[in-house]
Design goal:
This protein is extended. The chain has helices spanning 78-82, 121-134, 189-200, 213-226, 246-256, 276-284, and strands at 7-13, 16-24, 48-49, 56-57, 64-69, 72-76, 91-99, 108-116, 136-144, 147-156, 159-165. The strands form three sheets. The chain has a seven-stranded mixed β-barrel with strand order 1-2-8-11-10-9-7. The chain has a two-stranded antiparallel sheet with strand order 3-4. The protein is of the alpha+beta class. Among the domains are: 7-27 and 86-168, Beta Barrel (Ku70, Chain: A, Domain 2), CATH 2.40.290.10; 48-82, no CATH class.
Amino acid sequence: MAPRATSSGTISFGLVSIPIKVFPATRSKSVHFNMLHEPDKSRLKQQYVCSGCGEVVERSDTVKGYEYARDQYVVLTEDELKSLEAESDKSIEIEEFIPIEKVDPIYFDKSNLLGPDKGGAKAYRLLCQSMKTSGKVALGRFASRGKQQLVLLRPTEDGLMMHGLYYADEVRSFDDIELDTGIEFKKGELDLATQLIEQLGHDEFEPEKYEDGYRQSVLELVDRKVSGEDVVSAPRPESREKIIDLVAALKQSLADRGDAPAAGGRKPAKAKGKSAGSKRKAASR
């Protein structure tokens, strides 16, 4: 089923204005559960309960407060908050073009697909193609819901994708993480680790090879219980042992894959032919 547009707007850069539609780029398939009352299995409803007097509070009797110190709040009215909101004209104002490799993936938040709206097909295609030719992506601000979100526009396949970005002060660094950068490696450790990476390496990202095993297991369990089958829980797998000898662990990892280093430290030549993943795909067709 084709996704529905969540909003419409414009992309603006210079004197150019391109009408666009915004579509969700992803859809979560995570398993969600409802909280039920155990005796009669009826669905539970959430309520607001005052931590001071213990009374149940209706939404109409609530106000918004900002905690400026522990248990100290300043109340902000809806009118005060609305006066701070930017104009929500759903416009994307491009401010600069930069190489995509200069953007750290940690800044990426949610993603949306952008499609041309009526009258914008040619300008949309021109922007998309020129960005591909230049090897640049666009940074701009998306005015929506009273706020201006930092966004990145990226040409991909035959269209443009919009990624919401975190602001710089929202991204954490390793400054507060204790790291020992003075560790020295034993002889052969780096070579073995690099060899294992090479053996596990591929030139392409193939997300279709991976599935949410937990979700599949939950849905299978649900089907079995709905059909009246008695379900017996399987024992949990034993946890892995902690690494004692790093070199031994690396060698064992390579040996388990049939890639144990030969004499002289060289890795054996790879067998030609289809990979196990390719064979599984072929068998499942």
